[in-house]
Amino acid sequence: MKAYIDPGTGSMLFAILIGIFGAAGFFFRNIITKLRFALSAGKNKELMQSKQPLVIFSDDKRYWKNFEPICRELDKRGFEVTYMTASQDDPVLENPYPNIHGQFIGSGNKAFAKMNFLNASMVLSTTPGLDVYQWKRSKNVDYYIHIPHAASDITIYRMFGIDYYDSVMVSGKYQIDQIRKLEKLRDLPAKEIVLGGLPYMDEMVKRYTADKIEENTVTTVLLAPSWGKSAIFSKYGGKIIEELLKTDCDIIIRPHPQSVISEKKMLDKLMAEFPESDRLKWNFDNDNYEALKISDIMISDFSGVIFDFTLVYDKPVIYADTEFDKSPYDAWWLDEPLWTFTALPRIGAELREDNIESISEIIEDCLHDPKYSANRAEVRKETWENYGKGAEIAADYIIEKYNDLLEKQEER
Fold it and tell me: Quick one: which of 147, 112, 148, 161 has its CA closest to 328?
């Protein structure tokens, strides 16, 4: 006997079956979607966790002084750091911090090649020119952070120096204005800017305060120029050294480290013309602390070391008129004076070709005029925010940014 289902009942049963199959299909699709998401999230989390949390890249051993206070603070908090250096004798390779792992990755292009294929969540560096010269952004790095190595204009970098960093840690509000203006002129996305401080200068203050300072019986002058066509040696040759030797002062000459590389021929000539003696010393120490500590006054041009010297050690400076050429630098884009050249007249005296023979009198005036001391305090406030807290703020930001990147990765 055959079963008979009337059309109305059959239609209802068919609708029920469709509903059941539809519900089952939705249920299984939902399970598959959740499973895929879970697996994907797991892979994303695994990928994120396989990355080195933070890589510090240093193209020269002299920047250990800039990074060490930050490394010490991160080590204290148990945060792992891989410090990649292009100097075979970098102090980081023998550092005492268990969470800071120094690696020599080769010099020159070999180091940049390593960085170009890096797998890391974040990179912190003081090296300008990311994605402009031979150092390219790695597709496996999530975030690049720049920290300047001097307390001066952020625009005294060669053209496009910090354009392709994701964030910049600055020490003065005027630097924020400079970055924002460059971004607008070049139609760049806004970077994250952190008003931090100057960890390495905070460290110098601690060191200097704790040190035993012996007063000089003879005035010691430190000649510490920048490098390039606008710097002292290119503009004046040995004229300033010649005039200093006519004074009663002891003289320390500390060329910019880049001069040793880019201007070796010129330096060799000057060192042959003005050899060391009882009164004259050439200084090439990796750490400039001792040279700055024992000097009474500095002569420089637009070098950032001026601010190390005058703001940390609270000593006067003389700045040479070198007719600064902005054309190779980011500063060329801004129709305004560099902050450095608004600060220099307040903290020191100008040395020009027409007064260079009076250098002895200029030195005496700078050493004893009280206006320079008062102005140093003003300039210090402008370019050294969060005095004494630079490393702590930098570590806070790095850890917070890493956790933020990890959270975003897990949400994908």
Answer: 161
